[in-house]
Prior knowledge:
The complex is a heterodimer of chains A (608) and B (115).
Chain A: E1 7-12, E2 31-35, H1 38-44, H2 47-58, E3 72-75, E4 89-95, E5 102-108, H3 110-117, E6 122-126, E7 133-138, E8 141-146, H4 155-166, E9 171-175, H5 177-180, E10 188-190, E11 193-195, H6 200-206, E12 209-214, H7 225-238, H8 245-249, H9 255-261, H10 283-288, E13 292-295, E14 305-308, E15 316-318, H11 320-326, H12 335-348, H13 352-367, H14 374-377, H15 380-393, H16 398-401, H17 404-412, E16 422-423, E17 426-427, H18 437-445, H19 452-455, H20 458-461, H21 476-492, H22 505-517, H23 523-543, H24 573-587, H25 598-604
Parallel strand pairs in A: 1-6, 7-12
Antiparallel strand pairs in A: 1-2, 3-4, 3-6, 4-5, 7-8, 9-10, 9-12, 10-11, 13-14, 14-15, 16-17
Helix pairs in contact in A: 2-21, 2-23, 7-22, 11-13, 12-15, 13-15, 13-17, 21-22, 21-23, 22-23
Chain B: H1 2-18, E1 30-35, H2 37-43, E2 47-51, H3 55-65, H4 67-70, H5 76-82, E3 83-87, E4 92-93, E5 105-110
Amino acid sequence: xxxxxxxxxxxxxxxxxxxxxxxxxxxxxxxxxxxxxxxxxxxxxxxxxxxxxxxxxxxxxxxxxxxxxxxxxxxxxxxxxxxxxxxxxxxxxxxxxxxxxxxxxxxxxxxxxxxxxxxxxxxxxxxxxxxxxxxxxxxxxxxxxxxxxxxxxxxxxxxxxxxxxxxxxxxxxxxxxxxxxxxxxxxxxxxxxxxxxxxxxxxxxxxxxxxxxxxxxxxxxxxxxxxxxxxxxxxxxxxxxxxxxxxxxxxxxxxxxxxxxxxxxxxxxxxxxxxxxxxxxxxxxxxxxxxxxxxxxxxxxxxxxxxxxxxxxxxxxxxxxxxxxxxxxxxxxxxxxxxxxxxxxxxxxxxxxxxxxxxxxxxxxxxxxxxxxxxxxxxxxxxxxxxxxxxxxxxxxxxxxxxxxxxxxxxxxxxxxxxxxxxxxxxxxxxxxxxxxxxxxxxxxxxxxxxxxxxxxxxxxxxxxxxxxxxxxxxxxxxxxxxxxxxxxxxxxxxxxxxxxxxxxxxxxxxxxxxxxxxxxxxxxxxxxxxxxxxxxxxxxxxxxxxxxxxxxxxxxxxxxxxxxxxxxxxxxxxxxxxxxxxxxxxxxxxxxxxxxxxxxxxxxxxx
Amino acid sequence: xxxxxxxxxxxxxxxxxxxxxxxxxxxxxxxxxxxxxxxxxxxxxxxxxxxxxxxxxxxxxxxxxxxxxxxxxxxxxxxxxxxxxxxxxxxxxxxxxxxxxxxxxxxxxxxxxxx
Lengths: 608, 115
């Protein structure tokens, strides 16, 4: 098929005897090229779907996410490199050391294109190096180089150092110091973009890999270049239309003031949904002051990325999730401080949402007398920068924060579990679940935990056809459809920010995939792929010991009136359970939310 | 809704210092249209007090007062596809024909919520 290499590359870092034994340009042993069945590719597409399938191929039962044998999968996508824009993303899939469940992250820009050009549809990395090294992958093979001199460097510094020393044609993903230290919410970074959630950086670090560098131009040709060109023109035009206006103008930062107005801006560890000082963090104010510039990923016309520069200082990338997690969630309303904190998280390689959520939670514990820490009793604005640095090194009270809110709550006890802001150990993003109750259910049942990029049910809550303060079982079918569409976009791959620019994702996605691969697919094929990919995620979690008790929200959101905020009613617990049962039925799972029976599904997907 | 009242007061105060008479058909009720994102940046207006009986009418008045807003806002038929409206910050609708009552505050924001 066009668009695919038809194989993946499996690299065992332990098998070659370690980097030191290999020599500067030797090709490591322990490498194999494994064919990918076409029938499987048609069902899982690529990206997240392919990455999850490969993880299931590599593993059976429960395992330690940071053990040497734990796989780290980089899965590329059929549309990437096809000239269709908004497709420069790759999937990074592993077991999460934070949640101990599936972690299907995405990383953007050139790494996704050059990585595919390195000659395989995916890299499956197992084993661990004897000493800190960098893995270099190109079409001719791969090799390891010892790079202890990169230890302690930020991701951006390490990336620059590798390209300076070995050539600017290498594209690099790295972890920062937090990944080296095994912080379970350490990020992986490339060119300032991050696979940020669930600890992919810690998985890389557990293999004593500081970085992976790829290069190559061995891109599989599209089957029908003329059809791809016509679709490219249409997609380009659509991605500059009203469906993406917000992302082009304010980026995701535009959420902040609207969410504040709608009472869903998580503030002080979700104790409030709005704040009189929100205006101080608004992108509207920054834009009016000429303090924002726009940047794009490779092959993208939208340019959602906003770089903010205050007082002529160095521009810092900023998104809504960073600003919410390091601002309102911590009761911080100083834009300069939020920018510094966000930049520091990027430097040390920490997921801002989990860091912010954990610090906000620890602060509330200290305030309530549940956690004996003089430092954590202080206002977050006074400690946030030190806290980031200490967390990345797991030192002092940073060692507590490095646990994430779920593990910290287990240690603190005293009822703190009820307001630890996570699902399955992954901290809740910047949407107050009580004011967006369909999304609340979406976060609760998410295979990755509280992940707003996989559910997308906020589109329903703000569709204008749903009471966002109710969980209506009649809307579950649409919620499932939105989840499936997200899985398809993450697997083709298409950036989700074009979703409103498309007339019909399944029809148009099938047209794109058919033009690239030559396999004539239709909307029903993509719809089925979305379902299949969700089943794969469930199967992986089941094998890791998941049970339906994990598909819930913190008690804070499911309790008595007044327990959430003054303005917002909590989610009705009975309504929640009824809606969850309906969700399981809609997915074809049993009453306990399990995938039954596994046998036929495993055979159809050729999962041995 | 104590928090909301405080914010409403802030927006109202800003409007009162920047506007004089309310535009629109004087037979329609007086409402407030709150602007966010690029609409606010392009117009320099946080909230506009105007006469309107429906959301569509309010948006039409906005376009008349601020021609730069007209370039951002699609025609009425597509308005509900790309924008959302909340009357008084609570329920959300995509129907520009929704009726307004005197004193209503209409929050106008992009339908692209995620990110």
